[in-house]
């Protein structure tokens, strides 16, 4: 019995410290008081990190991750599957925002050729990382998911309409991503 109790306590303590770390990270964002919209959240984060973030709704090919964070030199894109149910879209977007907030590292997953294909209007050298949404239970994935859920609580209304402005290079990105047979990440991982 003692062993069982001890074993049960350890993960709890671990989760508590994980939760507190995440909450602290969200507090440190100094979000404006009151309810946010997804756009006001993105605007705030963009200003805070000095990197505008654009949402890019896409029809991704089968087998793709349903969300991707594409980090270029001066701005970030969060691409998500536009055919998902709104509630799932919301979860995907918040998850990718979680990665952005945590500044998670992603190994460069794209060859220069793939980058050129994907982002012809962006200098390949400027694309620092592309992070596909995965459901692996890695610490980074757990963190992104939890921070996304914390941020989601602050968002009052959620529109499924495309109220966001898609910059020209993101529209290009959308077209290229849609044309891919498989996500770059999977290809590179072999
Ligand atoms: Zn993820």
Structural key phrases:
4-stranded mixed β-sheet; 11% strand; 7 helices; 190 residues
Brief overview:
With 190 residues, this protein is of the alpha+beta class. Helices cover 49% and strands 11% of the residues. It has helices spanning 2-27, 38-49, 86-102, 112-118, 139-152, 168-179, 184-189; strands at 53-58, 67-71, 76-81, 129-132.
Per-chain topology:
Blueprint: H1 2-27, H2 38-49, E1 53-58, E2 67-71, E3 76-81, H3 86-102, H4 112-118, E4 129-132, H5 139-152, H6 168-179, H7 184-189
Helix pairs in contact: 1-5, 3-5
State the order of secondary-structure elements, H for helix, E for strand: HHEEEHHEHHH
> So what's the oligomer here?
single chain
Q: What is the terminal separation in angstroms?
A: 46 Å
Question: What is the number of helices?
Answer: 7
Physical arrangement of strands within the biggest beta sheet: 1-3-2-4
Uncertain ranges? 180-190
Overall pLDDT: 74
Number of beta strands: 4
Q: List cofactors, ions and other ligands.
A: zinc ion
Gross geometry: globular
Biggest sheet statistics: 4 strands, mixed
The portion of residues forming beta strands comes to 5-15%
Count of domains = 1
Helix content: 40-55%
Label the structural class.
alpha+beta
Radius of gyration: 18 Å
Protein name: IrrE N-terminal-like domain-containing protein
Domain IrrE N-terminal-like: 57-106
InterPro entries: IrrE_HExxH
């Amino acid at each position: 019995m003692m062993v069982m109790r001890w074993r049960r306590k350890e993960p709890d303590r671990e989760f508590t410290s994980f939760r507190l770390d995440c909450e602290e990270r969200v507090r440190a964002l100094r979000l404006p008081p009151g309810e946010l919209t997804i756009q006001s959240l993105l605007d705030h984060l963009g200003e805070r990190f000095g990197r505008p973030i654009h949402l890019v709704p896409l029809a991704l090919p089968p087998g793709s991750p349903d969300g991707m964070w594409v980090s270029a030199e001066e701005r970030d894109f969060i691409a998500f599957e536009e055919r998902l149910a709104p509630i799932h879209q919301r979860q995907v977007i918040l998850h990718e925002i979680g990665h952005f907030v945590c500044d998670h590292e992603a190994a460069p997953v794209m060859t220069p050729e793939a980058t050129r294909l994907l982002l012809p209007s962006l200098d390949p050298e400027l694309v620092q990382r592309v992070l596909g949404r995965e459901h692996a239970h890695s610490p980074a994935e757990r963190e992104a998911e939890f921070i996304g859920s914390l941020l989601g609580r602050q968002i009052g209304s959620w529109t499924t309409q495309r109220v966001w402005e898609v910059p020209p290079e993101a529209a290009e990105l959308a077209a290229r991503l849609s044309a891919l047979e498989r996500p770059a990440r999977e290809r590179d991982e072999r």
